[in-house]
Amino acid sequence: NKQQSTNINGETNFLVDKNHSYSIVVTHPSYQERTLKYHAKQHQTLAIKLLSENNIQEVIVTAKEGKGLTSKSVITTKAMEHLQPSSFADIMELVPGGLAKTPSLTTSNRVLLRENDSAPSSYNTSALGTQFIIDNNIWNTNADMQLSLNDSQFLDGPKYKASAGIGVDMRTISTNDIERVEIIRGIPSASYGDLTSGVIKIDRKIGKTPLQARFKTDGFSKQYYISKGFVLKQNWQMTASMDLLDAKVDPTDSYENYQRLTGSIRSRLKTMLWNKHLEWRSNIDFSSNIDKEKNDPDTGYAPVDVYKNSNNRLSLTNNFVYILGKENFFNKLTFNTAIRQGFDKIEQTKLVQQSGPRSISLATTQGENVGVFPQIKYISEFYTDGKPLDLSALLQLNGVKKSGVLLHQYELGLDWRFSKNYGKGQQYDLLTPPTATMSVRPRAYDDIPAWQVMAAFVGDQMSYQIDDHKLNLYAGLRASKLLGVDQSYSISKQLFFEPRLNFQYGLPKLFIGNHALKADLTLGYGQFYKQPTLLMLYPNSKYLDYTQLNYYHNDERFRYVNFMTYVQSLENKNITAAKNTKYEARIDLSYKNHEFFVTYFQEEMTNGFRNTLQTTTHTYKKYDASFVDINYWNNGPNLANI
Q1: What is the DSSP string of 60-116?
Q2: pTM greater than 0.85 (yes/no)
């Protein structure tokens, strides 16, 4: 198996053994690949003619399926230019099974991998268990606790705008800077963890580019974008960009809209450290996302009723790649760090007008208490303040060595993630509650312990070739533990192991006519765990207020109400990580300019997270192209594994 290039005239020489057969593969960026069989008899000159790629009359740009050990789709800039996306949700249309649909930018957009959109809305484990990685840095959402009140005054709008418990809201990701997207639906290596469904890797462009500006408008949104790439030194490149999106739920509706502002400065420096190559990539990113909703004057009290959900993020990431050299057991060292601080607030102002006298309890502890009679008509102000801080650090060592007939590509590393919310939490005046039947009380988020996960992983990809037979086997293991959880939780004593196996057999080429048919058979098995988020570990308590004595008099001095308040903890001490087991079989065929992929997969997730008190059982199907997998979901206690 030897590779060599031709000279400027397209000529090259190579030595062969007499009376041996060879497969010759000729490739050129501007021409179609050509493969032919050659039996060496004596010195001979071969003239190989290649067909131009320009012979293709029509090109449909979609995601390109990968041929590696795991099922994945790769989306390049050309495909995105063809699509003209407004957010990352549009890019997901290019994935097998993805549907082209009207953008919905005024509601949160959860990601769907091997899943249809008919699943019950209380089941979001698949979306939560999809790991987003931007420029090799994890996007962590485990400290997102922004919940609003499901108030019919706003037609359930707040319920569909919050993103707590669904993972990454795809609306918040600008697509203009994206250079390449890799969507792993199959079984990734052991270096990826805290997931159940898959991995979405986003690489943004960096380097010298002319000043670029883009303006896009359609019936629902307007988008403005500007960027410029610089070369500060020969080994130092930088890119700065800014993006603004303004969207409406309907062109004729000016009372509900969504705005996104993102800014980014990305730097890449290549230098030497102790006579070895070091690459340092640093990013500073800012994003602001605002959901606004006001009531139409015909349906609400326009001067007062307002809903606003704002999410701001400021992040600093530093990635170091240090080349240690081929003479060492580990050839490359990677150290990635990320700091992301969020400033989130949900503000809701509304006019509350009761149909008659109401009484409420002000108690924050369990027991008997004296309540009050609020005004029949008042203005309520409610807000949820969140300040999620996410930290992550990844140390990874990679090496390549040949041992006998086997080529080993191995990895070893540690992965640490930290999330803590320093916000004030849900806040409102107890005398002017959003409704008179409140079953919660204000609480501060910064009283909740931090979320921490420590993981270690090891993996080895072994390659072996016999003539035209190619064998690849990846074996990896990841071990993780949730730290800092009270000993009363059973998960505090659990250590989670995630084995990963992928095997690929490259069959010998079969010639049909003058062209070779290539076939690869791939098998995979893997286990994955997604740890519960802060909101699942520490839900707010429920307050049950029972009236024991109620006397209402027209004179406020003679009114009296007495309650017995019970405080019900919704914490599930037996909650554990959601587990998904994946089985996969795939065959890849390639002949001339045609590629054919068939994937059979089965995913078994018998426990997951939900937020419902129902006790029925749901069974639903997931779809990836035309291949079907059935997952069984059994309901359990509120915010518990099911």
Answers
A1: ---PEEP-SSS-EEEEEHHHHHHH--SSHHHHGGGSTT-------TTS-----SS--
A2: no
Q: How far apart are CA 188 and CA 336, in angstroms?
A: 19
Cα–Cα distance between 481 and 537 in angstroms, integer?
A: 15
Q: Check residue 581 and report its DSSP letter.
A: E
Specify the pLDDT at position 624: 36
- Taking the C-alpha atoms of residue 605 and residue 346, their distance in angstroms, rounded to an integer, is 33
Of 148, 151, 155, 112, which Cα lies nearest the Cα of 130? 112
pLDDT for the residue 531:
94
137 and 201 Cβ atoms separated by less than 8 Å: no
Backbone φ and ψ of 48, nearest 5°? -110, 125
Q: What is the pLDDT of residues 294-309, one digit of tens each?
A: 766 665 555 677 888 8
Q: What is the token pair recorded at 502?
A: 């992928």
Residues whose CB is less than 8 angstroms from the CB of residue 137 and which lie 6 or more positions away in sequence, other chains included: 283, 317, 319, 336, 338, 392
Run of H or E residues at 314: strand 306-323
At 180, which helix (H) or strand (E)? strand 178-184
Question: Using one digit for the tens of pLDDT, what is the confidence trace for 612-621?
Answer: 433 233 333 3
How far is it, in rounded angstroms, from Cα 50 to Cα 39?
Answer: 20
Helix (H, G, I), strand (E, B) or coil at 152: helix
Q: Which residues of 404-450 form beta strands (DSSP E)?
A: 406-421, 425-428
Report in angstroms the alpha-carbon separations of 97 from 67, 83, 93, 552: 18, 16, 8, 61
CB 348 within 8 A of CB 158: yes
In terms of Cα–Cα distance, which of 180, 290, 300, 203 is closest to 244?
A: 290
Gap between the terminal Cα atoms of the chain:
52
Measure CA 252 to chain center.
33
27-44 pLDDT per residue, tens: 887 777 777 777 777 677
CA distance 552 to 173: 54
Does residue 176 contact residue 241 with C-beta atoms inside 8 Å? yes
Could you tell me which of 279, 126, 135 has the C-alpha nearest to residue 205? Answer: 135
Integer Cα distance of 464 and 483 in angstroms: 40
Specify the range with the lowest mean pLDDT, choosing from 43-57, 93-107, 169-183, 536-550: 43-57
Q: Closest Cα partner for 311 from 140, 146, 549, 516?
A: 146
pLDDT score recorded for residue 87: 86
Contact assessment for residue 105 and residue 245, using Cβ atoms and an 8 Å cutoff: yes
CA 187, 188, 192 angle in degrees (round to 5)? 130
The closest of 436, 155, 433 to 295, measured between CA atoms, is 155
Q: What is the Cβ-side half-sphere exposure of residue 99, based on CA atoms within 13 angstroms?
A: 10
Give the DSSP letter of residue 483. Answer: E
Residue with tokens 């706003």: 154
Scan for tokens 């503000």, then name that residue: 347
Q: In which residue are the tokens 């590629």 written? A: 595
CA distances from 347 to 40, 163, 352, 440 (A): 78, 15, 15, 17
pLDDT tens column, 555-571: 888 999 999 999 999 89
CA dist., res. 540 & res. 554, Å (int):
36
Report which residue type is found at 555. Answer: D
Q: What is the DSSP letter of 154?
A: G
Let me know the angle formed at the C-alpha of 579 by 574 and 582, rounded to the nearest 5 degrees: 165
Q: 126 in helix, strand or coil?
A: helix
